Amino acid sequence: MTPSRPQPAVQARRQFEAALGAANVFFDDTDIAAYQDKFAIDDEAHHPAGAVAPATVEEIQAVVRIAREHGIALWPISRGKNLGYGGSAPLLAGSVVLDLSRMKKIDYDEANGTVLLEPGVGFYDLYDFLQQRGLKHWLSTPGNSWGSVVGNALDRGVGYTPYGENTSKICGMEVVLADGTLVRTGMGALSGSPTWQLYRYGFGPCWDQLFVQSNFGIVTKMGLWLMPEPESLMGMDVEFDHPDDLGPLIDAIAPLRREGLLQQSPTIGNWLRAAAVLTTRDQWTKEPGALSDSVIKAIRDKYKVGWWGVSLRLYGRESVNKAAYAVLEEAMNRLKPMSLRPTVWKRGEPLEYSGWTGTPITFPMQNANWHGGRGGHIGFSPVLPQSGSAAMAQFKRTYERYREYGMDYQASFAFGERHLINVNAVLLNKDDPAMMKKVDPFLHALVADAKAHGYGEYRTHLDYMDLVASTYDFNDHALRKLNERVKTALDPTGVIAPGKSGIWPASARRGAA
Ligand code: ADP
Fold first, then answer.
1. Which of 13, 35, 85, 464 is flagged as catalytic?
2. For the segment 60-86, what is each residue's pLDDT rounded down to a tens digit?
3. pLDDT tens across 381-398, in order?
4. Residue 287 in 3-state DSSP?
5. Could you confirm whether 315 is annotated as catalytic?
6. C-alpha closest to that of 145 among 365, 425, 313
7. Mapping DSSP to helix (H, G, I), strand (E, B) and coil, where does residue 356 land?
8. For 97, how many CA atoms within 13 A lie in the half-sphere containing its CB?
9. What percent of the chain has pLDDT over 70?
């Protein structure tokens, strides 16, 4: 059973309706179903009491006031497409979802390449907006671009371009706190400043990142830097034949990433990525358990992919890209890849509609249909050093666990500037009870394996927030205690997303130790 709060009183609902209009208050059974986690492992967990959808800061402040008065927990979402991490569902059952998807204002500073966005602006909205103005700036879209730009940056989602780590491009926020106070961070704290989206830090402590993956406030506006349209894009898709090629590949890319020759963050992925999107499992085998080596070979033969593959892309001036390309090509050829396919684009040519060009995409989500039935996926994503031997050891450990639990291995190793994130997708069939029963022990085993080597996850599903927070345990969990002191100071009764990222106010601490 997940923790829950009592259903809000009828009186509270009436107050929400008076503040927002009845059309923006949702407490019917169908509404509750609509806001549940579509990829939930336990369909009975994380049911919201309902949802409210304010359109302005003043309406948000009114909702917060009503919630405080009635002891209601709010769960803010931007567009609620955080599939695999809980979607639009709250951690605490009985919370009211604060749906900000009606707030869709975009302020664009073309000269400086920045936007100030409300939470409801989706990647498709911002793309259409920029395209109508000649696409002078590109987005960095995630694999499922249905979601909101603000929501993605707030959960540290990543895209494919040099601006891929959206959270690192945040510059200034506007936030409603649990007591209703409206705060602007950075230069926004200086009334009427024209530099809010230009200089991140302002004066004194910089708060932007304290509202990322936290529950300290409701973000109502976010400044973001956009990448200027490059003059050219050059790169290569490279495939590698053997599982053991992973280590040398990481050791070849890492120094190029650290020195900045590669500014985009490449992702090394395994053989399942094309098959899981383009086919269903029963087209390959009826055998239960993890896919056998012969099926893996059949998949690889059909799509002409290696055990591992990576796409490398260079963005910017053509002359610079050409020089950098030669360095990349030499580094890859030294590894004797199975295949190396160059790609080139120049400004003025038609864009390839992919994440590399910042185009919103949704087709990768098709992998939720791999097993048939009601599909879903959940991720396990520990942070590793950029070391080939560390990555190989992590890969072998994790692959063994996949086979032990009879799951099909879909993994990637994504480069940051100094780290790797090993994103492992667990593809699910919610209509297969035997499989669903294994998921929770499987994830616990993966988290424990990683922890034993000093690795922790960068992001997780609602079900595992307390567990993952508990692995960050230095000095008797001093960081969690610090987070909770801040939470208790700002929001003593837990109005905003109690339990998010394992952070509870002192009055409601329920998480695992
Ligand atoms: P997306 O629509 O991009 O997938 P979500 O709306 O699902 O993003 O948001 C991801 C997570 O970030 C949510 O579960 C929530 O915890 C947090 N979040 C989203 N928007 C806000 C916001 N405006 N203020 C505070 N937290 C937010």
1. 85
2. 999 999 999 999 999 999 999 999 999
3. 999 999 999 999 999 999
4. coil
5. no
6. 365
7. helix
8. 32
9. 98
Residue reference for tokens 């919103």: 360
**Whether this model's pTM surpasses 0.90:** yes
- DSSP reduced 3-state for 429: strand
State the DSSP H helix or E strand holding residue 96, giving kind and residue range, or none if neither.
strand 96-99
133: DSSP letter: T
Pocket test for ligand 1, best of 35, 77, 126, 209 (most atoms within 8 A of CB): 77
Question: Which residue reads 């508990």 in tokens?
Answer: 470
DSSP-derived secondary structure for 252-269: HHHHHHHHTS--S--EEE
Q: What length is written for the chain?
A: 513
241/309 Cα distance (integer angstroms):
9
The active-site residue, picked from 13, 200, 257, 459, is 459
CA of 80 to the centre of ligand 1 (A): 6
Q: Which amino acid is at 421?
A: I
**What is the distance between the alpha carbons of residues 39 and 48, in angstroms, rounded to a whole number?**
15
- pLDDT higher than 50, residue 513: no
User: What's the CA-to-centroid distance between 76 and ligand 1, angstroms?
Assistant: 6
What single letter denotes the amino acid at residue 509?
Answer: R
102 is catalytic: no
Average pLDDT over residues 440-463: 97
| Pocket, ligand 1, Cβ cutoff 6 A | 76-82, 86, 100, 119, 147-148, 150-152, 154-155, 218-219, 497, 500
CA of 349 to the centre of ligand 1 (A): 35
From 36, 95, 123, 154, the mutation candidate for ligand 1 (largest count of ligand atoms within 8 A of CB) is 154
Q: Which positions ≥6 away from 251 have C-beta within 8 Å?
A: 387, 388
Q: What single-letter DSSP state applies at residue 168?
A: G
332-371 pLDDT, tens digit each: 999 999 999 999 999 999 888 889 999 999 998 899 999 9
The tokens for 502 are 């394992």
Which residue in the list 402, 458, 464, 480 is annotated as catalytic? 458
Q: Which two tokens stand for residue 326?
A: 């030669």
Q: Is there a catalytic annotation at residue 458?
A: yes
Written as one string, the DSSP assignment of 451-483 is HHTT--BSS--GGGHHHHHHH--HHHHHHHHHH
Q: Which of 143, 138, 144, 186 is nearest to 163 (CA)?
A: 138
Phi, psi of 190 (to 5 degrees): -95, 110
Q: Which whole-number Å values give the CA distances from 53 to 17, 177, 182, 309, 423, in the listed order?
A: 10, 17, 18, 43, 33
**In angstroms, what is the span from residue 79 Cα to ligand 1's centroid?**
7
